């Protein structure tokens, strides 16, 4: 039987987790060859020691750290995959790769990059924004010698590229495809033991944390005024639940100032480590999980109650927040106060 080569390119912890998830479940058989390219930029995925060998069965991990865009693109194109999977369809390099690799005859899939699959952007002066983004991103391709002569339109519509054939989502019944292209919508499998084992190995995960009767908060790197809203709400949670463990898993891009403020809070436990937060969620029972509108809460654990305090941010009238429509998935409840949060009745 001929081998099918699947090539994945990932830029974040969540994208890496979902790439491994797909490779260890849907494409686990020996006639699939899974190659996952890890592109590390800035503060993302720095917890991975690239000197170690993480290859497992039919999965190979390759690193392209801080490489020029041309080298990244040429290296991945040279793989000549049968199936190419990206997890962001608005970055110029992914659009270039999707377009050129599809011309090689490969099938192109778009995997999830958080809540982008479900949110609705309500841009002010949308046409001008599209023109600006399209100009900036095509100029990037020209400067990096990746321009093929095709002018790509970056219009904020999820999954709208003509080369995209499959869209993988966690909750297909709640996904609405607004693009003009025809796609197959595929449900992502739940995280399996091998997937979680591999991701723990990659990030050398050995952390011990409370798994029952606790409150988990997943913050986000926000603008200064919204970071204060997030902080103030957490203070109210600590007052509302004085006898419960309250644990904050810091986002990798949290500012040094906010890290200091959070760590100074009495009775708050802070996890400041680089690994996908979904590792924690999968092991919890009888817990409250909340955030403003973090991707982390897409991962459903039926033993826990989920909350978005997005309405608190919306009430500020912040211009960026007003442009983002966040529909709550069925397992997530929108709240405005800590009093609305309850532990599961197991």
Descriptive overview:
This protein is of the alpha/beta class. It has two domains: 4-202, Rossmann fold, CATH 3.40.50; 214-340, 3-Layer(aba) Sandwich (Rossmann fold). Helix content is 29%, strand content 18%. The protein has ten helices and 15 strands. The chain has helices at 13-25, 69-77, 92-103, 126-143, 193-202, 224-240, 256-263, 278-281, 310-314, 319-322, and strands at 4-10, 32-38, 59-63, 83-86, 107-110, 120-121, 166-169, 184-187, 214-218, 245-249, 268-271, 288-291, 305-308, 324-325, 332-334. The strands form three sheets. Strands 3-2-1-4-5-7-8 form a seven-stranded parallel β-sheet. Strand 9 (214-218), helix 6 (224-240) and strand 10 (245-249) form a beta-alpha-beta unit. The longest helix has 18 residues, at 126-143.
Strand order of the largest sheet: 3-2-1-4-5-7-8
- Beta-strand percentage? 15-25%
- Regarding quaternary structure, what we see is single chain
Q: What class do helices, strands and sheet pairing give?
A: alpha/beta
For this structure, the CATH topology of the largest domain is Rossmann fold
- What is the class of the largest domain in the CATH system? Alpha Beta
pLDDT < 50 stretches = none
Largest sheet: 7 strands, parallel
**What is the radius of gyration computed over CA atoms, rounded to a whole number of angstroms?**
21 Å
- Domains (count): 2
Judging by the overall fold, what is the CATH architecture of the largest domain?
Answer: 3-Layer(aba) Sandwich
Q: Give the overall shape.
A: globular
The mean pLDDT is 91
SSE arrangement, N to C: EHEEHEHEEHEEHEHEHEHEEHHEE
> Number of helical segments?
10
Distance between the termini: 48 Å
Q: Bin the helical content.
A: 25-40%
Number of strands: 15
């Amino acid at each position: 039987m001929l081998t099918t080569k699947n090539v994945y390119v990932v830029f974040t912890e969540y994208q890496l987790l979902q790439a491994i998830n797909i490779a260890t479940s849907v494409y686990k058989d020996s006639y699939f060859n899974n190659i996952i390219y890890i592109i590390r930029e800035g503060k993302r995925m720095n917890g991975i020691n690239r000197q170690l060998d993480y290859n497992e069965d039919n999965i190979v991990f390759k690193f392209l750290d801080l490489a020029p865009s041309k080298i990244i693109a040429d290296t991945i194109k040279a793989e000549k995959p049968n199936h190419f999977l990206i997890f962001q369809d608005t970055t110029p390099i992914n659009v270039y790769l999707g377009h050129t690799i599809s011309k090689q005859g490969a099938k192109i899939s778009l995997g999830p990059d958080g809540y982008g699959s479900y949110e609705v952007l309500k841009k002010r002066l949308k046409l001008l924004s599209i023109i600006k983004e399209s100009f900036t991103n095509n100029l990037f391709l020209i400067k990096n010698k990746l321009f093929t002569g095709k002018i790509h339109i970056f219009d904020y519509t999820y999954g709208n590229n003509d080369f995209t054939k499959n869209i993988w989502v966690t909750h297909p019944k709640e996904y609405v495809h607004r693009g003009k292209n025809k796609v197959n919508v595929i449900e992502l499998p739940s995280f399996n033991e091998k997937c979680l084992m591999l991701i723990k190995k990659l990030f050398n995960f050995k952390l011990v944390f409370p798994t029952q009767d606790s409150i988990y908060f997943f913050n986000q790197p926000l603008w200064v005024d919204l970071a204060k809203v997030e902080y103030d709400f957490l203070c109210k949670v600590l007052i509302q639940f004085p006898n419960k463990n309250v644990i904050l898993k810091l986002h990798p891009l949290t500012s040094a100032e906010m890290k200091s403020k959070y760590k100074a809070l009495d009775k708050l436990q802070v996890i400041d480590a680089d690994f996908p937060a979904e590792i924690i969620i999968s092991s919890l029972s009888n817990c409250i999980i909340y955030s403003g509108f973090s991707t982390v809460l897409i991962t459903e654990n039926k033993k826990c109650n989920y909350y978005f305090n997005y309405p608190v941010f919306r009430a500020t009238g912040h211009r960026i927040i007003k442009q983002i429509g966040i529909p709550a998935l069925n397992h997530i409840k929108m709240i405005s106060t800590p009093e609305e949060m309850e532990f599961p009745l197991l």
